[in-house]
Design goal:
It is built from ten helices and nine strands. It is α/β, with parallel strands linked by helices. It has a six-stranded parallel β-sheet with strand order 3-2-1-7-8-9, with helices on both faces. Strands 5-4-6 form a three-stranded antiparallel β-sheet, covered by helices on one side. Bound molecules: adenosine-5-diphosphoribose.
Length: 244
């Protein structure tokens, strides 16, 4: 199964990981579209919008406060750690749709957060932005300017931070290997990153227990959990590099 890696390791210098909710699932953070995807019978896709926030900011903050608590307690798993360890052997960049900061906690040094970070808070009107990695005492946090504070995450219908996206496209377009882990690849524009890598003749590997819309485009599909597949892939890569 890993013949591909063994044969090509010499040529692989730049590796990009594109990660989604699945990689943090085994750290206790639910995915969006999985069986555990509902929150108090609400569809997360309908809560993660600016309209939902302005219609019912208290409800949306309740959802985010619960998720923040969960994220503060979560620890990186073997999947996150394996990616960080690979930095010793190749140039590694992580392009993540996750807002949980677990790649950074696992010591990955180059992480681009495409959808923001749940510990950061910004004003819905002025330029206030802060990192608040603790519980709020108030139900509805207000900015000094009097307007409502919101999580610094990208909601449906909002654009990605353009500087981050530009860099992400640059890395995707020049990598030798892209590993797509734990994402359903249904959300745009993040799901265009593998296409960009493929146009540059990069090898594409997918790690996901389920088939995705792009599985047929991959050079290798590993239908397994990330905590099991990533350490194996990384150790194979290390062995091959040490031999070369
Ligand atoms: N290991 C690997 N993959 C897993 C695991 C696991 N342990 N558990 C679940 N998965 C896979 C699922 O099969 C699914 O394909 O992870 C994927 C999770 O998909 P989504 O829930 O759609 O999450 P993601 O792709 O990250 O969503 C993208 O959508 O809701 C928005 O902004 C939010 O960043 C999010 C974006």
């Amino acid at each position: 199964m890993f013949e591909l890696i063994r044969n090509q390791t010499k040529e692989i210098r730049k590796i990009v990981f594109v990660t989604g909710a699945g990689i943090s699932q085994e750290s206790g953070i639910p995915t969006f579209r999985g069986k555990d995807g509902l929150w108090r019978n609400h569809d997360p896709m309908k809560l993660a919008t600016i309209d939902a926030f302005f219609n019912n900011p208290k409800l949306v903050w309740e959802w985010y406060n619960e998720r923040r608590e969960n994220v503060f307690q979560a620890q990186p798993n073997q999947g996150h750690t394996a990616i960080a360890e690979l930095e010793e052997y190749a140039e590694v960049v992580v392009l993540t749709q996750n807002i949980d900061g677990l790649h950074q906690k696992a010591s990955s040094s180059k992480v681009l957060e495409l959808h923001g970070n749940i510990t950061r808070i910004k004003c819905s009107v002025c330029n206030f932005l802060d990192d608040i990695p603790r519980r709020f005492s108030e139900n509805l946090p207000l900015c000094k300017c009097g307007n409502i504070l919101r999580p610094d995450v990208v909601w449906f219908g909002e654009s990605l931070p353009q500087d981050v996206w530009k860099k992400a496209m640059g890395f995707a377009g020049e990598c030798d290997l892209m590993v797509v882990v734990g994402t359903s690849l249904v959300v745009s524009p993040a799901n265009t990153l593998p296409i960009s890598a493929k146009q540059n003749n990069a090898i594409l590997i997918e790690i996901n227990p389920e088939k995705t819309e792009m599985s047929s485009e991959m050079d290798l599909v590993i239908n397994d959990l990330s905590t099991s597949a990533l350490p194996k892939l990384v150790s194979l890569f290390k062995q091959a590099k040490e031999k070369n």
